[in-house]
Specification:
mainly alpha, about 70% helix, about 140 residues, 2 domains
Length: about 140
Amino acid sequence: MLLINLFIIVNTLLPDYRGFLLNGWHTLIVAVVEIFLIGGVWWGSLIASHRIAGPLYVMVREIESISEGDFTARVHLRRYDMFQPEAEAINQSMEILQKRIDRIKSIVDEIEKQPGGYAPATPDHLARLRAELEQFKTA
């Protein structure tokens, strides 16, 4: 496309140059072809940018949900989007985190169900809670 434009410019600037002659119809055909090529490049760029920007938007939105305490949030991307492995890694991490929190909740439920309610936790309960909590790195 740029080569055709170069020939047109050379033809315009150097009238004695006869390497590439264009009459009215040839110029119209070249213009139509260029419009289709530019449109194709524009369309391809639009599709490519949506396959990148869309997944990033979804990941940021879901990570914000997680930071607000929604550990059921998962990243769901369209089939042809970029960042599929990253989305899968985020989802697997959230599965593991959700299971750990569920185990902690079940231990607390067991403590609450002891006779007398909110009775002191047994050494077994405390050991299990400690084991679950030690899986989290906080410092």
